[in-house]
Amino acid sequence: MNDRTPSGAGWFESVDPGNVEGAATGIRDGSAAAPRDWPVQAVEAGFADGEDDYYDRLREATLAATAAAVEEAERADDRQLAHAVRAMDDCERTANELAERVAEWAGTLFDDAGTGVEYARTLAESDPDGPTERRVVDLARRVASLADERDELRTFVQQQASVVAPNLAAMAGPVLSARLIALAGGLGSLAKMPSGTVQVLGAEDALFAHLRGQASSPKHGIIYTHEYVRNTAPDQRGSASRALAGKLTIAARVDHYSGERKPELDDELDDRIASIRSRGGDE
Amino acid sequence: MSRPDGVARRTIDGAERLATRGAPVYGEPTDGEWRLWDARRSKLGAMFENGMETGLSDGDAVLYLGAASGTTVSHVADFAGPTYAVEFAARPVRDLLDVARDRERLFPLLKDARKPETYAHVVENELDAIVQDVATRGQARVAAENRRFLADDGRLIAAVKARSEDVTRDPDSVFDSVLSELEETYELLETERLEPFHDDHLAVVARPR
């Protein structure tokens, strides 16, 4: 994921003393497997005149690096997150569709042909013999790279969701959080929704069928993918999704209006779900 | 019990309370240059209040994991030497930055305490103490991963939060499993519950094996 190989050098390595911006970059992007006696090393390397001078420079650099990192994190865009999760779904759907085509085609050419994206990945590694095989193998390579792109997008979504909406991401997981933000049309819109709407986001077809009087009301939309709904006994699932939607709405509001991480929200939800699940057997 | 000289008991607002010397952070009451360290707002404060032997002394080099908005780490930086403050959430770090700007040897880092390799190029080795207050699952693993920063005679001072590990389990059984995992890398010196100041928290003082 990261092209930068851990260099194991101190943050001040190849930074000119006095170059605060360069030093801040060193703080933010560097890495090392093990700490060392950096103050001594910095003085030996001529970066600082002595321990006090080193700490003064470290102070300047960490303040600059952390202020920049915070600013960047807080500017992270909920719309970008929504695009990324939609693109991730598109890549997945397209990869699966093309993988089916590859499987069908390859089945006519190779005895050991399999199915699915994994088979397409295997086939992509092979050497084609003749123009027909070349086309199939080439198509398989497209499938493999689409699947790679989906994985990259998922990693991006996982990183960004906890920056855009830390409480929501902690409670719902990064991918579900991103989907909720995308369905609502932004974190701000999600924060302004009543929890009953959040509960059925993604179940619009069922909801409108219900409103036309043709069906019972949907118990859950996309939040069905949350293990607190899926792994709760069917007769308690309505309660579980109502409780989950309520806490997710609060988490989205905290993220939108304050942005501060409140782990106690997770605890309250955990408690509530535990009590919903435990009453299941008694009734 | 021993306390750093920089942590004193002072009469503030008519009662004898813990205090450190530094710029006020969260509107706490002050007495001259001393400012109140509220044990209800700080787990480390509660450990001092309960008379635990933390092993901390003036001028110690400290790594603070889970600094949040800087309430506790501000008091640590008041009596300690170089203090590295690691916090993962961006929003509270904005407040932590204000706390750090008022202190000469407090270094704020927006990093994940579960990934020490992302700050091992900044935080020095052979530290005197790690103070850990992270609200995440796997608190014992965080302590083990950060062992690399600690001197052999250094101290781990951790506030273990039961509800972060598993809210459905009994806190005592959570503490048992966290402690037994912790004992793979650390020798436990003292453990104590932080009631009445903080519910379902276990304070642990340990040294590396």
Q: State Rg of chain B.
A: 16 Å
| N- and C-termini, Cα separation of chain B | 24 Å
Helix content of chain B: 10-25%
Chain pair forming the biggest interface: A-B, 43 and 35 residues
- The proportion of strand residues of chain A reads under 5%
Average pLDDT figure of chain B: 94
Number of strands of chain A: 0
Short description:
Chain A is mainly α and 283 residues long. Chain A has helices at residues 20-29, 38-44, 51-75, 78-106, 116-124, 130-164, 166-172, 174-184, 187-192, 195-200, 204-211, 227-230, 237-257, 263-279.
Notes on the structure:
The complex is a heterodimer of chains A (283) and B (209). With 283 residues, chain A is mainly alpha-helical. Chain A contains 14 helices and no strands. In chain A, α1 crosses α3, α6 crosses α7 and α7 crosses α8. The longest helix of chain A has 35 residues. The two termini of chain A are 50 Å apart. The N terminus of chain A is likely disordered. Chain B has 6 helices and 11 strands. In chain B, the strands form 2 sheets. Chain B has a 7-stranded mixed sheet with strand order 7-6-5-8-9-11-10, sandwiched between helices. A 4-stranded antiparallel sheet of chain B has the order 1-2-4-3. Chain B is of the alpha/beta class. At the A-B interface, α3 and α14 of A face α3 and β7 of B.
Blueprint of the fold:
The complex is a heterodimer of chains A (283) and B (209).
Chain A: H1 20-29, H2 38-44, H3 51-75, H4 78-106, H5 116-124, H6 130-164, H7 166-172, H8 174-184, H9 187-192, H10 195-200, H11 204-211, H12 227-230, H13 237-257, H14 263-279
Chain B: E1 8-12, E2 15-21, E3 30-31, E4 34-36, H1 43-49, E5 62-65, H2 71-79, E6 83-87, H3 90-101, E7 106-110, E8 127-132, H4 139-145, E9 150-161, H5 162-165, H6 171-182, E10 186-193, E11 201-208
Parallel strand pairs in B: 5-6, 5-8, 6-7, 8-9
Antiparallel strand pairs in B: 1-2, 2-4, 3-4, 9-11, 10-11
